[in-house]
Give the backbone structure.
Amino acid sequence: MTDAKPTHLRRTIARAKRRRANAALPRAATLPDRLADAVAARVGSWRFILVQSGLLVAWITANALVGPGGWDPYPFILLNLVLSFQAAYTAPIIMMSQNRQNGLDRDRSVADYQVNLRAEAEITLLHEKIDLLREQQLTEITDLLRRALDRIEALEAARGTSS
């Protein structure tokens, strides 16, 4: 029942095994990776938004109370510069963290795909085994029926000669 010609599933499993054997072990997170993740975790939190909002309100209020003689009078050009500077550095750092996370997710999805392939291979193998067992049972039942028919014919022949 087993084919000498490899099936699509067997070829796919063989390719996945070769890729896995050739793939390097997942690298540990470097210091820049950990820093990017930490910055993204802090900046992407409600605590950061609340603290930054509080600082902005304090900055604007303090400058408005002091008036034109304040360190950053209206239209708050220094505040705009500080926020632009923060955004210019924060956005790429967050993107580095997201790119690293995408890589990890991609590796996990490849691993899940390989597990699914193995499960499919096992299920296919079980189907082949069940089909083989059915074929053997059918052969046995057919042999039993032939023997029973041969006995019936022999009994009828013996009855026909004795009558």
In short: Residues 77-162 form the longest helix (86 residues). The chain is about 85% helix and 0% strand. The mean pLDDT is 88.
